[in-house]
Write a structure and sequence with these properties.
Shape: globular
Strand content: 15-25%
Radius of gyration: 20 Å
Structural class: alpha/beta
Number of strands: 13
Order of helices and strands: EHHEHEHEEHEEHEHHHEEHEEEH
Length: about 350
């Protein structure tokens, strides 16, 4: 199977401004860096199995029960352990969406059925999706807002999907990692249903919210205790390092930083959309911390020559060459991207 390509490959693109990975534009808080450094005093000790203090802190932050939290080595590990625990025979995944879902499903020999999102409807998920939720489906993955399009699924439709999934005995996994960067996340999250729907699993990560992709720390929220226990029994005992646990505990205290990053994202998202539209690109109405657009098929290479790295989305199921995603970064970096695009446009 072909290995999926991700953004953030700065190691093969030394000296580039990285617009391919979507993290908090403020960068990593100093408090988290200090916590990681201080955790080195315990580098000789094994990490705490079960992450109890971190789970308690996450539960308080998310306003859920500690018993509804599972931690992992990034959200990616949580996705893989969920698929191993469920061991589904058939899954439903929209296309395009985050490639890691299908990668995890394929690793368990699951048959993946793709629901093609209509380009004419700007790749928005519609009511017709309900018809695809047949009794053959064992698990469904949704990303809200979707990656790479940045489009949100409205709450009424999510609720209809959740109810249909319960009727058909389908586990509904919803990736809410990018909800931190939308205007009103509380209007879209399904956390309120964790107590009443044991077929609901929510994915979250520290990666984007706190700009700590290299630490690898993610978590899941679920009211189905037996499913969480099965997932934990199938994970390696020390899957979350002591450094990651320390980083997570420090991160959850960074409330002012999170809000400042959100406000910067709102302003800069509007700026990038306006500038890309001005330059003639077809810009989709993303509400996340990235912009999805179409452009010339050689745009990735042209920007790479100018030491700017963007996400070529042609390897997403349902997309082809010419689809791109750029992260929202700070204003100076965003201006550099716009300047490079202007130079490319002038040279054509």
């Amino acid at each position: 199977m072909e290995k999926h390509i991700h953004g953030g490959d700065v190691y093969h693109h030394q000296g580039c401004i990285d617009f391919s990975a979507n993290c908090n534009p403020l960068g990593t808080p100093e408090g988290i860096k200090r916590a990681i450094i201080e955790s080195l005093d315990h580098i000789n000790d094994y990490p705490q199995v079960g992450c109890a203090p971190l789970k308690e802190a996450i539960a308080e932050y998310e306003n859920v029960k500690a018993g509804q939290v599972i931690c992992g080595n990034g959200a990616a590990e949580v996705i893989f352990s969920l698929c191993r625990a469920v061991n589904p025979k058939k899954a439903l995944v929209p296309a395009p969406t985050f490639a890691e879902y299908q990668q995890a499903l394929y690793s368990t020999d699951c048959q993946v059925e793709f629901f093609p999102l209509d380009e004419k409807k700007q790749f928005a998920l519609g009511e017709d999706f309900l018809e695809a939720l047949t009794e053959e489906i064992h698990i469904l993955f949704l990303c809200n807002p979707n990656n790479p399009t940045g489009l949100l699924i409205e709450k009424p439709l999510l609720e209809k999907i959740l109810k249909r999934c319960r009727e058909r005995n389908i586990l509904m996994a919803v990736d809410e990692c990018f909800l931190d960067f939308v205007q009103a996340p509380e209007a879209y999250t399904l956390k309120e249903y964790l107590d009443t729907y044991d077929n609901l699993f929510l994915l979250k990560a520290f990666t984007k919210r706190y700009a700590i992709a290299g630490v690898r720390l993610g978590y899941g929220l679920c009211g189905n205790r037996s499913l969480l226990e099965k997932m934990e029994s199938m994970s390696q005992p020390w899957n979350v390092s002591s450094m990651a646990q320390a980083a997570g505990l420090a991160a959850l205290k960074e409330k002012e930083y999170v809000e400042a990053g959100r406000q910067m994202t709102f302003a800069e998202l509007a700026y990038l959309k306006e500038e890309l539209t001005r330059l003639g690109y077809l810009v989709y109405p993303s509400q996340a911390n990235y912009v999805f657009f179409t452009g010339p098929v050689d745009l990735y290479e042209k920007l790479e020559q100018k030491k700017i790295l963007i996400r070529d989305c042609s390897n997403y199921t349902g997309l082809s060459k010419g689809y791109y995603r750029v992260a929202v970064k700070n204003h100076e970096e965003n201006q550099q991207l716009v300047k490079a695009l202007e130079e490319i446009d002038a040279s054509r």
